[in-house]
Amino acid sequence: MSGSEPAFRVRAATPADAASLAAMIRGLARYEGKARVEHITAEAVADWAFGPEPAFHALLAEAASEPLGYLAWYPIFSPFKGARVMLVENLWVEPPGRGRGVGRALLQGLAQEAGCRGIARIELNVRSDSAEAQRFYAGLGFVRPGEEVRRIEDAALERLARGETVGRAGVTA
Amino acid sequence: MSGCTLRLAEERDAPTILRLVRELAAYEELLHAVQATEADIRRDGFGPQRRFECLLAELPESEGGEAVGFALFFHNYSTFRGRPGLYLEDYFVAPPARGRGIGRALMARLAAIALERGCSRLDLAVLDWNPTRELYRHLGFEHQQAWLPYRLEGEGLKRLAEGG
């Protein structure tokens, strides 16, 4: 970025932002190929992010009152560090906001919030098919801890809860 | 089955949790990275703002009743689904206790907890050399090859906050 002031600002999202936040979450979900996005409504986001027990926190980037992007995060815990960690669930910049340093500014805002909260680590997952995204995060100082992400969901999770397994027959844990 | 008892940890288990965390770290050759203290475990596991929960697997009384395995977890959140998930942060069975189904029992209980709480997914990250990856595959976990974990901490985090 140049030394001039960016033409946008980053701030914590408030309940008044539920509709624009919902629209941006839908935008990211569509971009990632999710078929079903209509349940991501302003009312739902108000409940998820601004209810009595918020499931996540959000930072917004906006120019005048036009939303340019958002970052959704929540605190997790590292038993090795014995400390809380911030997990970035979503980082999204609307097409008009791209190339203006919005993503970087959102992460900078989060890093500042980490400092305020006494949190010393941010974690996130980056698309493995995007060299550009990997360069972006590496350029900000992010490193790869040599881990792989595993997930079990829906019917497979129900099978696991019932004690069933997949894979080779006869293998025991 | 394993004959072990599974239960959710309570505050009095903080020293046990820290012991198991250290055993896991030693297995991962990361013992030097453990900074957590018993006070950290008490504050973040059992204080007013709970950051994690923990399942303990204990040997039968006839074998001494010692805790030999644990699964430490917390909730994450899917903004796309609009549902919480469970994230398994630490998962470990002490080597002498392996081969009797304790790890599988811990995982099945965790899956049941996830479903009871309306969570539709269970996530974890595993070191890329860890042989436990085979167990995860066997239990039905899928490798999310589209995603690479990254982290930022220490000086890098300070630099970003300062805009450097």
Tertiary shape of chain A: globular
Percent helix of chain B: 25-40%
User: How many β-strands of chain B, per DSSP?
Assistant: 7
How are the strands ordered across the major sheet of chain A?
Answer: 1-2-3-4-5
Anisotropy-based shape of chain B: globular
Quickly count the domains of chain B: 1
Number of domains of chain A: 1
How many angstroms separate the termini of chain A? 52 Å
What series of H and E elements makes up the topology of chain A?
EHHEEEHEHEH
Main sheet strand line-up of chain B: 1-2-3-4-5
Would you mind describing this structure in some detail?
- The complex is a heterodimer of chains A (173) and B (164).
- In chain A, helix 3 links the parallel strand 4 and strand 5.
- Chain A has 173 residues and is α+β, with helices and mostly antiparallel strands.
- In chain A, helix 1 packs across helix 2.
- Chain A has a five-stranded mixed β-sheet, with helices on both faces.
- Chain A has a single domain, classed as Aminopeptidase (3-Layer(aba) Sandwich).
- The radius of gyration of chain A is 19 Å and the shape is globular.
- Chain A has five helices and six strands.
- With 164 residues, chain B is of the alpha+beta class.
- Chain B has one domain: Gcn5-related N-acetyltransferase (GNAT) (Aminopeptidase, 3-Layer(aba) Sandwich).
- The N and C termini of chain B lie far apart (56 Å).
- In chain B, a hairpin with a 4-residue loop joins strand 3 and strand 4.
- The radius of gyration of chain B is 17 Å and the shape is globular.
- Chain B is built from five helices and seven strands; from the N terminus they run E-H-H-E-E-E-H-E-H-E-E-H.
- At the A-B interface, helix 1, strand 3, strand 4, helix 3 and strand 5 of A face helix 1, helix 2, strand 3, strand 4 and helix 3 of B.
